[in-house]
Specification:
With 149 residues, this protein is mainly beta. It has 1 helix and 9 strands, in the order αβββββββββ. It has a domain at 30-128: Sandwich (Immunoglobulin-like), CATH 2.60.40.790.
Amino acid sequence: MTNDIFFPRASFVGFDELFKQLERATGHQAPQYPPHNIVRLSDAEYAIELAVAGFTMEDLDIERDKNMLTVTGDSRPRLDNETELQYVHKGISQKRFVRTFNLAEHIEVTGAELNNGILSIKLEHIVPDELKPRKIPISKPELLLEETA
């Protein structure tokens, strides 16, 4: 018996890339660095929070390309009087990282801030007016004139 997740592909047309992403996401993967949260702030607003202790704003880069959001961190070793620090214990990692997030259609990045070691990227689901539900007015049929003989 397997724990495979079954998606009824026969019922969906044009969702091939979505199914590929779901299959990759359900596979066994090692934990990724840095740890992150995805927070729903409202029905249309989200935030991605990444724990980036030890990184400065200059060490971080956020890029949006189509439906991919990529966050890169590259922290250079901190120098003390021209010599590299010698740690007795180093539990706070500052290794280089690249994290990518797949964004659904119409998700816009509205801002980012670094506060107390947490990089928070704000996202909003903005549906274009032409895709929003709209009411269709119902009109009365014009009365047919009966011909008299």
